[in-house]
């Protein structure tokens, strides 16, 4: 795995990814933050990137041209994972909301993001619901055999919610699903228990 670049190094790499191989002067003019920097500062950044093997340097006459050695996905993926873990404790939803509030999206970017959200939203939700239903039914059956009919519903819902929250990836969703399913299952079990008495 390549070394992790600093913030200024990431900016220089973003210039190379979007504009292709560039000289130090080209990188200096295109840095995204737009701050005034000395040529020697950017030269030091490019040399540091070369030492870290994140860029390749080629010489043509007196000019040196730098090219990214890794794709944006390879470097940004690692940086994004680190950022998500360090700044948001791994909570992707919070990170996305913070990023969205930081700027504006083009219509094309918005469409791409919506497409990705739809694709990702459907996968875990199905697994969580199935897990919640199974766990809630098991706990409801056990509790219905042991507890009096009136107390079954609340106890079962709580136990199922705790059990499912441990197993399912989306804890809040799992708790809500577990409570719903558990209440239904508990009511059925309570009716059966009442009929037997």
From TrEMBL:
It comes from the Bacteria. Coiled coil: none annotated. Pfam families: Penicillinase_R (PF03965). Keywords: DNA-binding, Transcription, Transcription regulation. Residues 122-197 are annotated as: Disordered. Belongs to the BlaI transcriptional regulatory family. This is BlaI/MecI/CopY family transcriptional regulator. It comes from Haloferula sargassicola.
